[in-house]
Design a protein that fits this description.
Blueprint lengths: L1 E4 L4 H13 L4 E4 L10 H6 L7 E4 L2 E4 L1 H11 L10 H15 L3 H4 L1 H8 L6 H25 L14 H15 L8 H11 L2 H6 L10
Parallel strand pairs: 1-2
Antiparallel strand pairs: 1-3, 3-4
Helix pairs in contact: 1-3, 1-8, 4-8, 8-9
Bound molecules: glutathione.
Amino acid sequence: MKLYTYPRSSASYRVRIALEWKGIAREDVPVDLASGEQLSPAYRAENPEARVPLLIDGDVRLTQALAILEYLEETRPDPPLLPPDAAGRARVRQLALIVVADTQPLQNTGPYEYLKDPLGLGDAERGRWYAHWVRRGLAAVEAHLADDPRTGHFCHGDAPTLADVCLVPQVANARRAGLDFARYPNVARVCDTAMALPAFERAAPEAQPGAPR
Ligand SMILES: N[C@@H](CCC(=O)N[C@@H](CS)C(=O)NCC(=O)O)C(=O)O
C-alpha cells in the first residue's frame, strides 16, 4: 500500500494509526505541505483535491481519511476499529465526525492561510479562530464522553475505535498549538491512553521520517 502523507497532517495521521493498528505494511510518499507541494500540478495529477492523505491499494485509489478508514475496516477487519453493534458503530462514527467534519476543516492549513491572504487577518485573530473552533469540537466530544457509560479506557469501551483514531491527531494538533486541556479531562485521558499504544506511537508525527522538530 502507498500512502501520500505529511508528518503533521492530522488526516494522514488517522490513516497511519489504522494501518499500524491493523499491521498493514505501507510505503510512504511524502507531500510537503509546508512548501505547498500539495498544490503542484504533479500532485494534483495524483489527487485533484490537492490534499493528503491519498491511499493507493492496488487498483484502489482513495482520498478522505474517513472513507479510507472504513475501506480498511471492511477489507481488513482484524483487529477491528468498530464495535460489533449498530448503535455502538453509530456512536463511534458520530464522535469521529465531530472531529473530521466539524473541527479539522476549520483549522486546516488551506483555510487557515486564506484567513491571512486574501482576508487579511493577523496572527492573533487567526489564533482566536483556531482556538474557538477546536475548543468547540473538543467540548462536544468531551460532553459525549462524560455523559455516556459506553465510554471506557477509550472513547467507546476498552479498545481503540475509529473515534480514538480521529480524536488523537486532533488533540496532538491542539496540544502543539498550546490549548489547555483542563476543560476536557475525558478527552485528555482517552488520548493519553491511546497515545501510549505502540501502534499510535509509530503513527505519531514525531515518529515519521523528516518530521519537523
Ligand atoms: N476531509 C479530508 C481533509 C484532508 C485535509 O484537510 N488534509 C490536510 C492535511 S491534514 C491538507 O492536505 N491540507 C493542505 C491544504 O489544505 O492545502 C480528510 O479527512 O481526509
